[in-house]
Amino acid sequence: MDFETLSGDLHKLKTRALAEIDQTTDPGALDQLEIQYLGKKGEITAVLRGIGALPAEDRPRFGALANDVGVAVKAALAERGVALRAAAQAERLGSEKVDVTLPGRSVPRGTLHAIPETIEAIAEVFGQFGFVVYEGPEVEDDLTNFQMLNIAPDHPARDLWDTLYVDIPGHLLRTHTSPGQIRVMRSTKPPIRALLPGRCFRYEAVDASHGFEFFQVEGLMVDEGTSMADLKGLLDEFAHALFGPRRTRFRPGYYPFTEPSVAFDVECIVCGGVGCPACSKSGWMTILGAGMVHPVVLQYGGIDPEKYQGFAFGMGVERISNLRHSVPDLRYYLENDLRFLEQFR
Amino acid sequence: MRVPLSWLRDYVDIQQTPEQLAERLTLLGMEVQGVDQWGSDWRNVVVGELLTVEKHPFADRLHITTVNVGSGETLHIVCGANNIAPGQRVPVALPGAVLPGDRRIERTEKMGIASEGMLCSGDELKITTDAEGILILPPATRLGVQLSDLYGDVVLDVDVKPNRGDALCLIGLAREVAAATGAVARWPEIVVAETGGPVAQRLKVEVREPELCTRFVGRWITGASIGPSPDTIQMRLQAAGMRPVSNVVDASNYVMLELGKPTHTFDGAAVHDGTIVVRLAQAGERLETLDHVERDLSPDTLIIADTRGPIGIAGVMGGAESEITGATTEIAIESAIFDPVSIRRTGHRYALRSEASLRFEKGQEFRLARLGADRVAQLTLAWAGGSVAAGRVDTATTEPTEARLAFRPRRISKLLGAEISTADQRALLRRVGVETEAAETGARIQVAVEPKPLVVDAGDEETFLAVVPTWRRDLAVEADVAEEVARVRGYETTPAHLPDTVMPAYRPSPLRARNMVRETLAGAGLSEVVTHALVSPMEQARLLWPADDSEPRLPASLAADLEDEIAVTNPLSAQHSVLRRNMAGSLLDVLSLNERQGRSDVAIFEVGKVYGRVQGQPREWVRLGFLLSGSAEPASWNRAARQFDLDDAKGLVELLCRRLGLPQPAYAPDGRGFPFHPGRALLARQEAGRETVVGRVAELHPDVLAEWDVRSQRVVAAEIAIAGLDVATPSSVHVEPIPRFPEAERDLAVIVDRECPAADVEAAIIRHGGGLLRTIRLFDLYRGAPLAASEKSLAYRLVFGAKDRTLTEGEVDEAVADVRRGLEGDLRARLRS
């Protein structure tokens, strides 16, 4: 064997290998080629074994040459491999194109009802000022619903609360959340900051603005120096939180269980105070009633009116919701037409 | 109360515009709910002068008139009235005019003669009640003037609160105007020209119930002639919302609106023996009231009677027989003070509430009995003539003086949260007629009155006495004085201040768990509903939803005592007359309603109360109810439709338990049938004694769906009691260390009888799994070949692990072998693996 012959074989092998690599389209075939040429029994390896037949002075030269060929074939295999994988990936991605403008796979999402959501919104605001939530019974006793709130039997003000009575002696369906004031005062001691949401009932024919079942949120704060100024400050914060930076109005109202009593208005949400049918041209909308807790009520709550004073307020949840969401008809709330409910997504 | 401003000006000067006045009154606590233009519905009605009045050539009843309306043009108008004559000034509705009731006047032809408008009667304009004749205006009335400019008025609609009966009249509101504006209120001059003989010769009064009728003042008028009252008076009454009747009745009504004193006038001839007796009705007595209803009088009714029997229900309504008629000449005037509670009860008993009873109910100033009698006599004399008998019959001539109410100015400042000097407080009170005088030290302060009175000693604190005007029956305690100070000063002057005192102790919100449930279910695709608590008893009876087991913390002995539902004794309708015992009926109502609106996919829930009684006492429980109908996943381009089934409902219960950190409930079949599908209903609950979730989950029976007219074939519903829904419970998650050693999994296919509940298989696996078994999960359920028809295969993945080491194959194999043996022994199961 001479150097010329061997190197010629090597060269031919290299040319063939590179050509075959170049023509390969299947990454698996590349592995076969690697074995065929560079494996232990590969063709290039076989040529290399012939090095022993060369004269000693030719061996280094041949060694270098053979190494170059091996490196070149390996590089070609790698390069071809990368190219083939890239092409395969590109082809897969190309074939996977979708119409991205189609709608997604819907994840079901229900809705939350406006009444509990409004109660939650109210509780959130007052919660920041330390008011904690209590609940009273809906089947209330007559004494707590009326007399302990300074509404004697046959009091003319009873007309304000047309009552539904039940077949349990001395009981009725609470006409307001105010009896909760008594229950809170009896179950805890000042300082009191309590919020009482819940369902109420009245003997009232149903129309767009009345219902025999409705929801209220009552608030109560009692401490040594709790004053009407505190009430005003707090109600202003509440009105601004729910209705934005609107003017508010604090004016006299009437409830037997507060003295002085307060009616609290915000600037009309529809017209901004100019006057429109929604606010009876007054520019104001009443959002709640309030006042300083009457000494009779404090006493029934077991609290000394000479030591403590406080305020209470009560609001209609539907009223607040109507104003926030421009709901036109009170009947929507308990009717539960999905076309109404689903607007609160 | 409707207050014509022109009338109010009789008692107080008003410089403000109606809108300004309305705002001032509102800010003083007399809420003005409307500012109406009286006469705004007379459009294009002007004052005209009749030039000629001639007979219509073709109709006897009609006249042809020529009218000058000041425009220079002469109008020809056909008119059917008989009271017209040339030279009179009359209201003329021009073509295009609109009258009350939206009646439009156009150019017409009447029996062949053109008519260019209409002459108006008082009734057509709703100014007087005279429908026969044309309204004849005073001769000096200016021609061509719009009638609304002449007689139009502004009427304030004032919402007088129940405690201020004294302000339910013009003089009372004039006092409030005076307080608001600084003007001075003035009373009408009440003088009675008595030209008749002594009243005692005509009228005797006996009050047998002095508690219920604390004062009765009577007067007598002879020779009156009944007719309409003056047009201006009729206009005032109409503007104030009261229909004119006759001069005598109008006088009584006028005084009620003016002074707030209801009085009654009887036809004196119908008061037998000139004797009035105030007494309780006797059993069997009857009376036809003014509204021509024959009423049986119950014995606790206070009545006005004569020597023969009842002639009126005291303070509520007079009798028809003694009514003033056109033939009346003798008039007995009743001006009495009745017990407010008695009047209120009587009004309720006969479902009769009148303007009079409304005022009696709120209590009356004592001296008004005298003033009212005098004023009615004075006005009757002026409008109906005759002569007034000398003197009054009066059963209680001593009129009480003003009460003194002690108050501490410093206390008032503290309540209002504003420093108001003593001098300022006294000045403010004076504006509402409350004079003040210094009190001696140690004055008694009335902090509260009935039903929970409290009087304290003022000690050496600065104290004043408020001299309460006799008409202010509402000022009884110190806080009432505070309100007077506050409202005259103006609530708007109250400083706004945020509470900065000690905060209350922490209290977990009872809404928290409810909100977690609500958010979770909404997130799972359900819509929240809020339904009526009051439902139909029929519906409750029809549904037969099981009531037992419904309260997790209700001891078993009490559960058996759950009695009938609570019923409303005065329901508005049978549809809403009992408190619901369950929520499923309400949810079915919602489903039915939405199906009628064309919705077939309905997934709803409610967190609300159900009600019952336990040992005669009311009880309320918070419940979760939900209902699933239609598609769980509606058909979409990338997914096939799937209908809701029982597994969806169970999945929701399991989801909620995970969310709330509660153990998963076990399911036990409920095969009762109606209202459930007999094979698809279950009771979900945890191990006995530690239930935190109890309730039924079921597909509803087709008969239930038919009852509710539900179209859907399958409806799944659940009603669940969850501990913590009504009482907040702190969350309690205890973290286990993350396992340090790998776990081993084994799959086990258990072949059991087709009827064997999966829960039994699961329980057996857990029972025999030993301490190394961590979790099991059912991943396949198979029926069919090669299994026998009576068999099914349940495939479980069992996970084993230990805290302190990696388990050997041998240990796991041994644990699985235990499970196998257990299943074979307990359930006669075959195992495939």
Give an account of the 3D structure.
The complex is a heterodimer of chains A (345) and B (833). Chain A has 345 residues and is of the alpha+beta class. Chain A has 2 domains: 3-95; 114-344, Bira Bifunctional Protein, Domain 2 (BirA Bifunctional Protein, domain 2, 2-Layer Sandwich), CATH 3.30.930. In chain A, 42% of the residues lie in helices and 18% in strands. Chain A has a 7-stranded mixed β-sheet, sandwiched between helices. In chain A, β6 and β7 form a beta hairpin. The longest helix of chain A is centred in the first third of the chain and has 37 residues, at 59-95. In chain B, 25% of the residues lie in helices and 30% in strands. In chain B, the strands form 12 sheets. In chain B, strands 30-33-34-40-39-38-37 form a 7-stranded mixed β-sheet. Chain B has 6 domains: 2-39 and 154-181, 2-Layer Sandwich (Phenylalanyl-tRNA Synthetase, Chain B, domain 1); 43-151, Nucleic acid-binding proteins (OB fold (Dihydrolipoamide Acetyltransferase, E2P), Beta Barrel), CATH 2.40.50.140; 194-394, Phenylalanyl-trna Synthetase, Chain B, domain 3 (Phenylalanyl-tRNA Synthetase, Chain B, domain 3), CATH 3.50.40; 403-490, Phenylalanyl-tRNA Synthetase, Chain B, domain 1; 511-634 and 641-722, BirA Bifunctional Protein, domain 2 (2-Layer Sandwich); 744-832, 2-Layer Sandwich (Alpha-Beta Plaits), CATH 3.30.70. The longest helix of chain B has 19 residues, at 809-827. In chain B, β37 and β38 (676-685) form a beta hairpin. Chain B is α+β, with helices and mostly antiparallel strands. At the A-B interface, α5, β1, β4, β5 and α8 of A face α2, β2, α8, α11 and α13 of B.
CATH hierarchy, class of the largest domain in chain B:
Alpha Beta
- Binned, the helix content of chain B reads 25-40%
Give the count of structural domains of chain B: 6
Q: What coarse outline of chain B follows from CA principal-axis ratios?
A: elongated
**CATH homologous superfamily placement of the largest domain in chain A:** Bira Bifunctional Protein, Domain 2
Structural class of chain A: alpha+beta
**What's the number of domains of chain A?**
2
Number of strands of chain A: 9
The CATH topology of the largest domain in chain B is given as BirA Bifunctional Protein, domain 2
Annotation field: number of helices of chain A: 12
> Which CATH class of the largest domain in chain A is shown?
Alpha Beta
State the CATH architecture of the largest domain in chain B.
Answer: 2-Layer Sandwich
Average pLDDT of chain A works out at: 92
- The strand line-up of the biggest sheet of chain B is 30-33-34-40-39-38-37
Principal-axis shape of chain A = rod-shaped
Radius of gyration of chain A: 44 Å
